[in-house]
């Protein structure tokens, strides 16, 4: 049992809020791993309360076998809907993983998502849209205002927090495991959606039931087309594109153009079955995504979208659809410092070990 003052405080809060208190096994809560060895079979106090703002909080007390407290919180900012998280059976669910996000970019992403969702519901009355923000750490308090504003547009909003930095792939999987929607969008926190992006995307998927994954036309900060569809990469391509200075990179323009599918990707033509698409915006039918079990959790950051694209292509069709338009404000690993380069190399090693090495 938890220590006296912790359990008393939890009991007092639960009694005040008229919330249920029960014991749950130490080790896992709703699929989220907690600190402590797997052999620990003690119990922790759990309580749930709902504040006036609609904030739902799960807090765990201390494990009696440890001399420190391990507090884990999972917060959920909800709309007034009575549905369980991400349970819109015929709707659209969206997952966004953040880690110390740029507040302005995240606010723009959520705002554009709200506008696109409103446009979607105009053409599809009654369609539910559910958004899950997975906070891997550093969630800014000001961003809760942007999330609340999104909720006021009729979008069901959830915030999962307190699990630590589990990486991009595992973060999205926390949301994917819960979804019951028809479509699921994997979205970066640095994306601006065109107002008609979601309407165009779902119209295309409805018209092409054999397509399980859609990739949009992705522009940069200035709106210029980014070539983010890929052929299978050689190690040399990754090195040239990510680490050579511009002056030297120009010597390999033709090679990089082939890798980036510049002969196929344009502003007007649908491209069927590109081998690899960008993880900044991946719109799935939820059924094949569930069959694939989401992202491979072995990737902490980088190459998880390469891996998932190749596995998706074995199961269903992929389409690049340029009428679906977004802007991407992200940057490459080499421009983010040594830590990102190290993660990039580690993920590349895992990717090639799985799918086969290609040097040149």
Task: Walk me through what this model shows.
- Residues 93-291 form the Glycosyltransferase 2-like domain.
- By secondary structure, the chain is α/β, with parallel strands linked by helices.
- 34% of the residues lie in helices and 23% in strands.
- Strands 7, 8, 9, 10, 11, 12, 13, 14 and 15 form a 9-stranded mixed β-sheet that branches. The chain has a 4-stranded antiparallel β-sheet with strand order 1-4-5-6.
- The longest helix has 21 residues, at 103-123.
- The N and C termini lie far apart (60 Å).
- Residues 1-85 have low confidence and may be disordered.
- Shape, per Cα inertia axes: globular
- Report strand %: 15-25%
Briefly note the CATH topology name of the largest domain: Spore Coat Polysaccharide Biosynthesis Protein SpsA, Chain A
Number of domains: 2
Name the CATH architecture of the largest domain: Alpha-Beta Complex
Number of strands: 15
Largest sheet: 9 strands, mixed
Helix content: 25-40%
pLDDT under 50 segments (min length 5)? 1-85
CATH-wise, what's the superfamily of the largest domain? Spore Coat Polysaccharide Biosynthesis Protein SpsA, Chain A
Order of helices and strands: HEEEEEEEHEHEHEEHEHHHEEHHEH
Overall average pLDDT: 80
Please, how many helices?
11
CATH class of the largest domain: Alpha Beta
Oligomer: single chain
Q: In terms of structural class, how would the helical and strand content be classed? A: alpha/beta
